[in-house]
User: Which sequence fits this backbone?
């Protein structure tokens, strides 16, 4: 008996380890405390995987007929299911599908591991519901249907279609499994979602990059082939090429990848055709060295390093990422300037991530920055809000337009914001040009792209010529559709020191914007805007220089369910900030301090919603 017991117990334990209760078509076998095999019948469209946000990632190796197909990481639920993510298996008909799952749960026994919530909740389905059930999901900003999104990247315009790719995790609402998600639009407002364009491969996950249309077949893949350069992020970062003959829907991965390697961290290749030098140019973020590398190429595959820009210049605190270089007309002249865009994180003007830029000249090899009279280089910010990052432009936008879009979040708290099945939206698209400010410097002029005007629905309010004093003048905001609207207003501060614009709701939550003409400042305070306690970095007061001496201030304010973008109507500044009010702001109040002001006009428009 003594002799038999251990064996008998062992056998029992072994038998128990194979008992996994699972949904129809799913067979679960527990091999050890952190290793489980899941076999599924390949006759459904999706496997639904249950996710618990706070759990560490499990590694899922998907095998098809015994051969490795792909590996991805999912926070497989242990205690409770927060939401589900679909794994598309529609292409695997007739094959044996095996998920070899390695969890990171540190279970003490196989039995304990077998009790994790995920196993009995893995199921097969032919449809995955992407209907919006979340209060904070934007109504008219681009978001992924589900899952995590960061940088917009690889954007190009071709045949009337705006292509937008983005850093995407299809398997959860936190950063992981970087893939190029893909959306397209004919009007920059309504977005159609497409299958993922480029997925992680043996060189690593697919970080940010850019696309161009190779009109003259300089890369040899064919005329009008769409060429993508992106960072393959494995243990190290290297640059890879993909090309598409179906307008960016699917990409063939170039067998000669990686096409560019360095012995230090470099990423986010951004290429463009230089009409003056008749060569391709490429900017690459030399992230930890806080500089942008500039390359040339005749064929998009072989790149020659020409120079590096930026060491010691501008904001230097964080890593330099996501570069862009844009040639922009100087208004009223036939001259041009070049604007070098440099996203950095952290070290942004109000903490965390932000987009700085440099104005200067470029000869195809070297970027020379404009300096102030004393020889120093000013630090300029494209947006003075907390939630504007990784902003880059569309390649080939029509009529020479410089159209950009940014990620509307901040690395400080992007993974903590109070949404669940999706995380992050992009900003409204913006058109860039230049203006000469009162300090004698050229700055970027940023306006909502003209396409945004089509969002205006019925006029909800129209006020003209109203005196503003210390006692607030209150006006209703449209609260239907989660309070989404555009406010177009024109102010004159007259004798006032400050003019305050307050958005508020009945719960006492508010956003306070202040125009201070004597200091040429416009500020935005979201410290009491609603839910703010998910991160110490979220409550903030930010401000922008108005770059003019004037008591007049005209604004266009775009409110979506969880964001506010404030544009100076002449493009001198933008403030993009997330807000999470428990109920929509229902009132706008205007008041002044230190004197009297005037509201020249205020129009409030409902927004025609779309389902992005
Ligand atoms: C910027 C960034 C890029 C990188 C990508 C990874 O937000 O860090 O430098 O390519 O995100 O998702």
Assistant:
């Amino acid at each position: 008996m003594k002799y038999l017991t251990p064996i008998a117990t062992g056998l029992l334990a072994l038998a128990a380890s194979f008992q996994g209760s699972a949904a129809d078509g799913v067979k679960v076998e527990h091999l050890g405390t952190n290793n489980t095999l899941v076999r599924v019948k390949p006759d459904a469209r999706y496997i639904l995987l249950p996710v618990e946000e706070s759990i560490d990632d499990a590694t899922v190796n998907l095998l098809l007929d015994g051969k490795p197909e792909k590996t991805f990481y999912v926070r497989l639920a242990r205690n409770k299911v927060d939401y589900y993510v679909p794994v598309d298996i529609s292409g695997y008909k007739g094959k044996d599908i095996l998920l070899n799952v390695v969890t990171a749960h540190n279970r003490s026994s196989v039995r304990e591991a077998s009790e994790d919530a995920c196993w009995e909740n893995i199921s097969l389905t032919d449809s995955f519901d992407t209907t919006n059930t979340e209060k904070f999901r934007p109504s008219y900003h681009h978001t992924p249907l589900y899952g995590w999104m960061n940088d917009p990247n690889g954007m190009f315009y071709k045949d009337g279609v705006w292509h937008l790719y983005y850093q995407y995790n299809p398997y959860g609402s936190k950063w992981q499994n970087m893939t190029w998600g893909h959306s397209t639009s004919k009007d920059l407002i309504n977005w159609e979602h497409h299958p993922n364009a480029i997925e992680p491969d043996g060189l690593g996950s697919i970080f940010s990059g850019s696309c161009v249309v190779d009109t003259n077949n300089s890369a040899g893949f064919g005329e009008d082939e769409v060429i993508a350069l992106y960072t393959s992020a494995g243990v190290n970062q290297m640059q890879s090429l993909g090309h598409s003959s179906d307008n960016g829907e699917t990409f063939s991965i170039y067998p000669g990848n990686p096409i560019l390697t360095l012995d230090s961290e470099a990423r986010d290749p951004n290429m463009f055709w230089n009409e003056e030098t008749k060569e391709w140019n490429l900017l690459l973020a030399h992230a930890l060295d806080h500089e942008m590398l500039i390359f040339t190429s005749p064929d998009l595959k072989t790149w020659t390093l020409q120079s590096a820009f930026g060491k010691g210049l501008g904001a230097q605190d964080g890593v330099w990422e996501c570069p862009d270089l844009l040639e922009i007309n100087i208004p009223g002249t036939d001259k041009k300037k070049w604007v070098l865009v440099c996203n950095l994180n952290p070290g942004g003007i109000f903490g965390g991530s932000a987009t700085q830029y440099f104005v200067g000249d470029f000869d195809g090899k070297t970027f020379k920055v404009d300096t102030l009279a004393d020889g120093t280089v000013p630090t300029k910010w494209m947006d003075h809000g907390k939630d504007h990052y990784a902003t880059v432009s569309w390649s080939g936008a029509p009529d020479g337009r410089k159209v950009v879009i940014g990620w509307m979040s901040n690395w400080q708290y992007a993974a903590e914001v109070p949404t669940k099945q999706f995380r992050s939206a992009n900003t409204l698209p913006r058109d860039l040009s230049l203006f000469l400010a009162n300090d004698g410097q050229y700055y970027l002029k940023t306006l909502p792209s003209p396409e945004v005007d089509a969002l205006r629905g019925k006029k909800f309010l129209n006020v003209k010529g109203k005196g503003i004093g210390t006692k607030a003048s209150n006006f209703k905001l449209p609260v239907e559709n989660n309070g989404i609207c555009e406010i177009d207003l024109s102010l004159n501060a007259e004798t006032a020191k400050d003019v305050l614009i307050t958005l508020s709701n009945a719960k006492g939550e508010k956003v306070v914007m202040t125009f201070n003409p004597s200091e040429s400042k416009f500020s935005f305070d979201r410290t009491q805007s609603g839910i703010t306690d998910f991160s110490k970095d979220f409550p903030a007061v930010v401000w922008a220089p108005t770059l003019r001496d004037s008591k007049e201030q005209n604004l266009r304010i775009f409110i979506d369910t969880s964001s506010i973008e404030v544009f100076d109507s002449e493009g001198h500044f933008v403030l993009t900030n997330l807000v999470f009010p428990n109920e929509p702001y229902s009132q706008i109040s205007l008041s002044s301090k230190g004197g009297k002001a005037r509201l020249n006009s205020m129009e409030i428009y409902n927004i025609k919603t779309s389902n992005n």
